[in-house]
Amino acid sequence: MTLTPDLSAVSDAPRKSRKNNPEKTRENILQEAIVEFVQQGLSGARVDAIAERIHTSKRMIYYYFGSKEQLYVEVLEKLYGDIRNTESRMNLTALEPREAISRLVEFTFDHHDRNVDFVRIVCIENIHNAEYVKRSDSIKAMNSNILDALGTTLRRGAEMGLFREGLEPLDVHLLINSFCFYRVSNRHTFSEIFQIELSDEAVKQRHRQMICESVLRYLQT
């Protein structure tokens, strides 16, 4: 007598399948690409190395991004997008003008201090004369949003008699970022030449307060 196996239990059992998640895959590639570009620069970065980190193939990376250069452009877009999205959630135009400026300065200081990769990538892009920023319409658009919010805040402050008239949002943006960016981008040479530890918490808090007060004093009538 031949026994026929009962397959009902097999057919009823839940089937495990690998679900493809394109967004998750793209995000994983971007995260590892940031590491590679920060460590090796654009010219020295290897798609092979990125693929090895996430246990995938070069073909998969090219499927999602097309080329190493386009992957680099999207890394730039992600890093600029992260800071601009956080700024937009601060809702600066709803705050009292002086508080809005203080929060923006403090956020910029903290962001650059905690996100060295962003600073490194921007330095790398400057070596390439912003060639890849020029290829991205979204970077220009997202950066215009913070200037709009800053401009509204400066006008409100002037109307309330808190800030002087005629302030240019781009000038104020440059003032804030120049200090916050420089102390991270040049931290090694600056620390060695002047024998100061910029990562010391007391030093950081002193500098944070200093740039905040400096910007507010510049804006005052």
TrEMBL record:
This entry's Gene Ontology molecular function terms read:
DNA binding
Q: Which InterPro entries match?
A: Homeodomain-like_sf, HTH-type_TetR-like_transc_reg, HTH_TetR, NicS_C, Tet_transcr_reg_TetR-rel_C_sf
What are the start and end residues of every segment in region (Disordered)? 1-25
HTH tetR-type domain sequence ranges? 23-83
Q: Which residues fall under the DNA-binding region feature?
A: 46-65
* Domain of life per record: Bacteria
One Pfam family recorded for the sequence:
TetR_C_29
Q: Which Gene3D superfamilies match?
A: Tetracycline Repressor, domain 2
Keyword set, alphabetical order: DNA-binding
Protein's name according to its UniProt entry: TetR family transcriptional regulator
